[in-house]
Every structure is written in C-alpha cells, then in structure tokens.
Amino acid sequence: MELRDLNTFKVIAETKKFRHASEILNYTQPTLTARIKNLEDELGIALLDRTSQGVNLTKAGELFLPYVQKIIKTAEEATDALILLKNDLTTNLLIGASFFVSCYELPSLLSTFRKHYPQICLHVRTARSTEIVPMVERNEIQLAIARGVVASASLEKIKLSEEPIVLCTHPSHPLSTLTRISLQDIGSIPLIAYQRGRGYWVVVEKAFENFSLKPVIMMELDSIEAIKKMIMQTVGASLLPYAAVQEEIAQKQIHALNIVNPGLTRDTYLYSGPLNKISKPTKAFVEMVKMIYCEPDKTSFNPE
C-alpha cells in the first residue's frame, strides 16, 4: 500500500466529499478515483460508497479508517523527527525556570532531554516566577517552568503538578514517630521559617491565616538549603516543599509529615507560546515534560 493512497482515503473519509478532498490534496477527481481504486483492488474490498449526497464509508471502510489515521500520524511524526535531526543540529533552546524549579526539578528534566536530543544546545535563565513568564511573552526565552499562576493572555499554560508542603524534622525529633499532622498541632511548634512574604512561604502564611492560626517562628532564613542544614543539625523543624527534601527523606536525614489540612500545596506550570506555533525543539521539550509530569505511570520518556 502506498502512503499517498492511504492519505487520499483518509481525507475523503473525513471530508465525505470528493470535491473537498480534491481541493485539500490538490488532486483532480479522476486522480482521487484512481488512487481509491488502487487501494480497494489491493485490499480486495470496497472502502467507499459514492452517493448523490457525497461519500459514505462501507463497513470495511469504517474498520480501516482508524488504522489509516494512525499510519499517517506516525509517518508525519517520523518525518518531523528526521527534519529535526537533519536541520536543527545546532538549534538553541532557551528555557526559563523559577529559582526553586531550577534547583530541584530542572536538572533531572534536562538530563532526560539531553539523552534524547543531544544536538540541541540548552540555555537556562533563572528568575522569580513573576519575572520569568513575561520573558516568554517578550520572546527572550521559548518556554518557562514556574511556580504558581502568572497571568498571561498570550501564552499556553499547562499545569504539571500539585506539590505538597510538608513538615520536616530531624529523625530524632519526637514527632518523627508520626506520618501526619494538622496545622493546629503545628501551630504550637517553633518553626524555622523561609522569608516571610516570599516564595512558597506565602502559601504557608495563607494556610495558617485561613484557620485563624499564627505560626511560632524561632528563626527566619532566606535559603531552603540553609533550612535543611538547620533541620539536620537538630536546630528545629520547618515547612518545606516536598521536592526540596525528597533526597534527604530517602536517605533518612530528614523526616517528613504530611499535613492533613487542605491548601498547603504549590502548583507548577509550564508556559509557552501557542502549541501550534512553537519550534520543534520547544515542542519536543513540552511533550517530554507533559509525559513525565502528567503521565506518572510511565517510568521513562521515549520520544519514539
């Protein structure tokens, strides 16, 4: 079977009119008829039934169409992949990320992307979420991964994850025997705070406010890494985004308690130009990130 014959059948089946298919494919109607006849002769069965109202699919045609659509889509994707490999060997991809994403999430994403697209040169800009998203609008970067919602009328926004904020203690802390805790109980625990009014701590403050609570702050730091060091030195406990401490939790250097009250989460979003207009490298990165975040059952990314 020739791909051109399959595509001819697909377009006729979807438009239901030989005339419309002729305009789309830029073929004469006799050419369309000849291609369909070649396909039907090869298969040994009729696929289309021409009527005065247009074209109907036979039972065989209805069965055959989904397979043809998959074949055409796969052929188009294969062609795009080869074009990317052939023409974009020195392509640059400019990525923006918030400080948190750049430190705790972007390294693994870039590692995966480089394995599949080593020909693409990556450039990363780091700034606050409210600063990095407008860079996409100004075409200074091609996409951004940021925390929280940043208003933009011109960009595509894809929600990637909803990450919990957890209470973190040293494994020797009395609370380390627990796995869950309420904000009400946290309210009496002296905490090491991140900068008040900044970053994820805004979510923490809002959650306490919603329950008419006020956290007890024993220390305030402007670095998540510094807070983790303090916890591991048994200085105190703190509330931290899970992604920032998952390695320490796995290594049993920090114990984390889930918070039962709603509202203590941070959303991660990917921002890009319209998906039908972005470059192929940008689209490849977007598809990879969507698969990793939005299809967690898939353990690895495979662009093929």
- Identify the CATH architecture of the largest domain: 3-Layer(aba) Sandwich
Helix content: 40-55%
Radius of gyration: 27 Å
Inertia-based shape: elongated
- Return the domain count: 3
Q: Determine the mean pLDDT.
A: 87
Instruction: Indicate the CATH topology of the largest domain.
Output: D-Maltodextrin-Binding Protein, domain 2
Gap between N and C termini, in Å? 23 Å
Give the helices and strands as they follow along the chain: HHHEEHEHHEHEEEHEHEHEHEEH
With helices defined by DSSP (H or I, 4 residues minimum), what is the helix count? 12
Question: How is the topology of this model organized?
Answer:
Elements: H1 3-15, H2 18-25, H3 29-43, E1 48-51, E2 54-57, H4 59-87, E3 92-97, H5 99-104, H6 106-116, E4 121-126, H7 129-137, E5 143-147, E6 156-169, E7 180-181, H8 183-186, E8 190-194, H9 201-210, E9 216-221, H10 224-232, E10 237-241, H11 242-250, E11 255-259, E12 265-272, H12 280-294
